[in-house]
Design brief:
mainly alpha
């Protein structure tokens, strides 16, 4: 059986993952507040970036999609940090902050994806839109 990903594809994913991880770490440098703003911003920016890339994916070569969509956005956004920070807010008795973080993260990311994809998605050349 032929492997689904070739070595250059794996390198593209790894390079994108390294860049996304570094940017995510840079965003959080020096932040000491209680509300997890760096994770929220990373997740919202990552959702917006992924929406733009998804809407235009037919214009991006396959390795570019691996680099940006899988590698970069996959490492830049994270549900694990979101889950840990939400648990910490709730355990510390910050129910209002915890709920605000929960709904602003999920609702904000979903809203960004819906708006950006609907505004930027262009059908592949020669194909009609599925709307």
């Amino acid at each position: 059986m032929k492997p689904l990903l070739r070595f250059p594809d794996l390198l593209a994913i790894a390079a994108g993952g390294a860049l996304g991880s570094l940017l995510r770490s840079w965003i959080a440098l020096g932040y000491e507040g209680r509300f997890p703003v760096p994770t929220l911003m990373g997740n919202l920016l990552g959702a917006a970036a992924l929406a733009v890339l998804y809407a235009r994916q037919h214009r991006i070569r396959l390795q570019g999609r691996y680099l940006y969509m899988v590698g970069f956005c996959g490492s830049f956004t994270t549900v694990s940090a979101f889950s840990l920070e939400l648990m910490q807010l709730l355990r510390s008795g910050s129910l209002v902050s915890g709920l605000a973080y929960l709904f602003s993260s999920i609702g904000g990311a979903l809203l960004l994806v819906l708006v950006l994809v609907s505004r930027l998605e262009v059908p592949e050349p020669g194909r009609e839109a599925d709307r």
